[in-house]
Amino acid sequence: KPFNPGNFLVHAVSNIICSIVFGDRFDYEDKKFITLIDLLEENNKLQNSLHTQLYNFFPTLMDHLPGPHHEVIKNIHKVDEFTVEIIMEHQKTLDPSYPRDFIDAFLNKMEQEKGNANSYFTVETLSRTALDLFLAGTGTTSITLRYGFLILQKYPEI
């Protein structure tokens, strides 16, 4: 019987990335997790619009024009708020001798670089890096897996 594994793959990949970056996975029914996935899915759809593509080339001009590109920016800010919230929680519960995940390792490096004014290890950089890992990894990996399943279905003899 035909089925679309898209949602399952996105949830599974997102949870794997969450466990590496945030040190925890989410229940598939968790409201925050579902909201996060919905924001990512919406951005994937909106990124194909002409307005969003023009925004990549003319951001200053497009800031003043209406269009779906504003929704993409809002969604990214919401995901960023989610990430910053987790980072703040990690800062409160950090045990430098026992890093739980990517965030803890980054926070440890921030502490080592504390006296360096030119250090790139800041909370803002951590937030952006975690956001990049989450946004880029979820979409590309789940789509790659989806195409892999499609190829396996087309050529079952292989």
Description:
- The chain is built from seven helices and no strands.
- It has one domain (5-148).
- α1 runs antiparallel to α7.
- With 158 residues, the protein is mainly alpha-helical.
- It is 71% helix and 0% strand.
- The protein starts with 5 loop residues before the first helix and ends with a helix.
What order do the helices and strands come in, and which of them pair?
Layout: H1 6-21, H2 31-46, H3 50-57, H4 59-62, H5 69-93, H6 102-112, H7 123-154
Helix pairs in contact: 1-7, 2-5, 5-7
Family: Belongs to the cytochrome P450 family.
Protein name: unspecific monooxygenase
Subcellular location: Endoplasmic reticulum membrane; Microsome membrane
Q: Nutshell version of this structure?
A:
Its EC number is 1.14.14.1. This protein has 158 residues and is mostly helical. Helix content is 71%, strand content 0%.
- Helicity range of the residues? over 70%
Q: H/E element string?
A: HHHHHHH
Helix vs. strand class: mainly alpha
For the secondary structure, the number of strands is: 0
Poorly predicted ranges? none
Question: What is the rounded distance between the termini?
Answer: 20 Å
Overall number of structural domains? 1
Major pleated sheet: none
CA gyration radius, whole angstroms: 18 Å
Number of helices: 7
Based on Cα principal axes, name the global outline: globular
* Arithmetic mean of pLDDT: 87
GO biological process, one term: epoxygenase P450 pathway
Membrane topology: Peripheral membrane protein
Keywords: Endoplasmic reticulum, Heme, Iron, Membrane, Metal-binding, Microsome, Monooxygenase, Oxidoreductase
Family: Belongs to the cytochrome P450 family.
